[in-house]
Amino acid sequence: MNTQGRPTRLAQDVDPGAYDDTLSGSRGLEQAEPLLFERGSLDVTGVDLPEPKGTQSRLGNVERKGVIGLPGLSEPEAMRHYVRLSRKNYAIDLGLYPLGSCTMKHNPRLNEKMARLPGFADVHPLQPEQTVQGAYKLIEELARWLMVLTGTPAVAMSPKAGAHGELCGMLAIRAALDARGEKNRRRVLVPESAHGTNPATAVQCGFYCDAIPADATGRVDMEAFKAKLGDDVAGIMLTNPNTCGLFERDIREIADLIHEAGGYFYCDGANFNAIVGRVRPGDLGIDAMHINLHKTFSTPHGGGGPGSGPTVFSEALAPFAPLPFVVKTKDGASLKMAENECDVDGTGATPFGRMTAFHGQMGMFTRALTYMMSHGSDGLKQASEDAVLNANYILASLKDVMTPAFEGTCMHEALFDDRFLKDTGVTTLDFAKAMIDEGYHPMTMYFPLVVHGAMLIEPTETESKSGLDRFCDVLRGLTEAAKAGEADRFRAAPVHAPMRRLDETLAARQPVLRWTPPVADAAE
Ligand SMILES: *Cc1c(COP(=O)(O)O)cnc(C)c1O
């Protein structure tokens, strides 16, 4: 087993507990899967090409002298390896994926169909502008929907993730402060419940963070917030609904106070799924907010990307929005890439810089706009309402056996703490691992940090009532088992997963990214 928890030999050699019941290490039709390098062999080749006759190498002395060191596998062998690995993965297309704060929602297949239209799928950023007018039109149309839904006058479409959108918004705030000659304003107020990307972004932009505590209801403590205002404050980064799944009721007052103090209001819009069509953040006084298209607008999250985090701006910050951006011209639209192109159009823009090499995630734009247009404004509103309803259904169904972190109803995600596990010997981690054996991907654990042993469950709007009932029944059953003293079962879980418990800390701190041949082989 390597430190990422992958078997480096057939599983039966290493982990007798997991696969001790078959000769091959496979189980059922689930194949034990070693690394490609272990499956193949360096002295075997998967392709059988004759030596070309009568040719001479033109590589001179840069020609490779040693063995290439790649495993010799045939195409089907290599393909099967990757397909088998993919089948060990879990996905929203396989079942409920209740990760709170991440909005892992269904990706409608219509989105995929549109994204595959050759005119969208095959565009290249270096094509002549007149051949990509349709793509610009789509970007513009999506931008318009985002501005209407958020009630803001400007949007930067180029950020490629939520965190990248935060960077975009905070750099715009910095540019605006610098333009005012207020370089002393470097303190950013960040609630304790914030997603880790918020303080990371602020620091990356040269600010430093000052944490605002939560009050007993899980929201910004207004007295503490007021006490922190001052003439060195650059702004606040606030998530709404916040990461406890609660609407920040004082948001209008927060916006007014931060503006009076001379700061800007960055809103983390990752939880926009809860309020689309119900609330326009622009009306609440925000100055910048990113929107995760891969959360709210159903474009897929995949292996860290490709995401898309367009960032909307208020009137005050709009001039500082970054390059590149699309502008209308007399014969269509054009992408402005460089600073010296801006004034030409008399836009009055003073971009803080250039955010990305090219425009953005065309495939994500196409999917998000498809989602918006197929739902319409009424459908988007209903999606938010259903997301909130589903989360509250879970909260109400489980609150007699699990412990909700705060009183009252929630928005799109239900937050529980670990008080219900007190004295059972079962931790939040054990509980989550036991869910894997039951066929459920665990919820978000230990986040937000303001709640002890947090379990943050976000079902999203597309789960049916019967699906939610089944999920709640399982969680109820697990809480009963924990309270009945079955701690050993929880500590051993997962027993049915392809891998048991992994040393995630070691894997993150000392990732082994390179395969080295076993010593015996190397000596041969
Ligand atoms: C997901 C998330 C982010 C970061 O978005 P990415 O697209 O993952 O970079 C920021 N804040 C909150 C509250 C989030 O849930």
Automatic annotation (TrEMBL):
EC number assigned by the record: 1.4.4.2
Domain Glycine dehydrogenase C-terminal as annotated: residue spans: 383-484
Catalytic activity: N(6)-[(R)-lipoyl]-L-lysyl-[glycine-cleavage complex H protein] + glycine + H(+) = N(6)-[(R)-S(8)-aminomethyldihydrolipoyl]-L-lysyl-[glycine-cleavage complex H protein] + CO2
GO MF annotation: an example: glycine dehydrogenase (decarboxylating) activity
One of the Pfam families matching this protein, by short name: Aminotran_5
Keyword annotations of the record: Oxidoreductase, Pyridoxal phosphate
PANTHER family according to UniProt: GLYCINE DEHYDROGENASE (DECARBOXYLATING), MITOCHONDRIAL (PTHR11773:SF1), GLYCINE DEHYDROGENASE, DECARBOXYLATING (PTHR11773)
Function: The glycine cleavage system catalyzes the degradation of glycine. The P protein binds the alpha-amino group of glycine through its pyridoxal phosphate cofactor; CO(2) is released and the remaining methylamine moiety is then transferred to the lipoamide cofactor of the H protein.
Entry annotated with the keyword Oxidoreductase: yes
Enzyme class: oxidoreductase
Domain Aminotransferase class V, residue spans: 183-302
Protein name per Swiss-Prot or TrEMBL: glycine dehydrogenase (aminomethyl-transferring)
Region (Disordered): 1-26
Highest taxon above the source species: Bacteria
